[in-house]
From TrEMBL:
GO function terms (MF aspect): 5'-3' DNA exonuclease activity; 5'-3' RNA exonuclease activity
Domain Polymerase/histidinol phosphatase N-terminal, residue spans: 9-74
Protein name per the record: Putative metal-dependent phosphoesterase, PHP family
Superkingdom, natural source: Bacteria
Pfam families reported in the protein's UniProt record: PHP (PF02811)
Length: 288
């Protein structure tokens, strides 16, 4: 007896617009090759890759959600907030992500300076060349690898530029509840990314009470126990769930393949319904 293949979709992936290794066009092309029917590009603190990604997805007939991943800080704990179907022409949202990009430059400059003080022969100019777009820690890690100072991104983070390491620099303290408000104000739906990586479920509960509208329960690096726990929490709060591989492309620390998180089709349908409802409400308010 033949079985119908489970439709594949992925709502968490990165491109060269932030710290991925594939361009938006290349990522969407890969999605087509893998048979995905829907996807989102969720680059860190930037929406620069969305126009190219959207155009290529339209060409291939892939349902495409505008996305972004805002990196935030909750009392010293890193918390990422995914935003889906934000208005990429909203001036307030554009100003916010442009400020965030400036802060990434400040942070990268600080980390490179610390590395130079520690005796490592790398330059900020080379890090910018590697990045191409928004600068992120993987680009600094790549510069270290090129010069033989680290064997991998994981090694670079553990010894040099990860949290608590000698050349680590703090992110600017965007609060997750503020990120949630920014996403909603731009017509998007805010989802707590990979809640199992936060390490403190009290933060998850607090953000759900402060307006987060879902959890990324189906996540490539969650255990089955974590997945089930966050599905139950989402059910308790009557919020939606999302799914994502957090694919960054070849030669990145997070390398689970795009579309590798096989998820019930209802997850996609519910997310799409939610973002369309939010967008409809946003456009009505914009007219008034």
């Amino acid at each position: 007896m033949n079985t119908i293949p489970t439709p594949l979709f992925d709502f968490h992936a990165h491109t060269t617009a932030s710290d991925g290794t594939l361009t938006p066009t290349e990522l969407v092309t890969l999605a087509k090759q893998l048979g995905l029917i829907a996807m989102a590009i969720t680059d860190h603190d930037t929406i620069a890759g969305l126009p190219d990604g959207s155009a290529k997805a339209k060409e291939f007939g892939i349902y495409f959600l505008h996305g972004v991943e805002l990196n935030t800080d909750a009392s010293g704990v890193e918390v990422d907030i995914l935003g889906y179907f934000v208005d990429i022409e909203d001036p307030t949202f554009i100003n916010m992500v442009e400020y965030r990009q400036g802060e990434r430059i400040r942070r990268a400059t600080e980390m490179v300076s610390k590395l130079i003080e520690l005796g490592f022969n790398i330059t900020y100019e080379r890090v910018r060349e590697i990045a191409g777009g928004v600068i992120a820690r993987p680009h600094i890690a790549q510069a270290l690898i090129e010069n033989g100072y680290a064997s991998s991104q994981k090694d670079a983070y553990a010894r040099l530029i990860g949290f608590g390491a000698p050349a680590y620099a703090k992110r600017d303290p965007l609060k997750p509840e503020v990120a949630i408000k920014h996403i909603k104000s731009a017509g998007g739906v805010p989802i707590i990314a990979h809640p199992g990586l936060i390490g403190d479920d009290s933060i998850v509960h607090d953000l759900l009470n402060q307006g987060a509208e879902g959890l990324e329960a189906y996540y490539a690096y969650h255990t089955k126990e974590q997945q089930d726990k966050y599905l139950a929490i989402a059910n308790d709060y009557n919020v939606i769930v999302s799914c994502g591989s957090d694919y960054h492309g070849p030669n990145r620390n997070k390398n689970k393949m795009l579309g590798s998180v096989v998820t019930p089709i209802q997850v996609m349908e519910t997310l799409v319904d939610k973002v369309q409802e939010a967008w409809h409400t946003y456009k009505i308010k914009a007219v008034k």
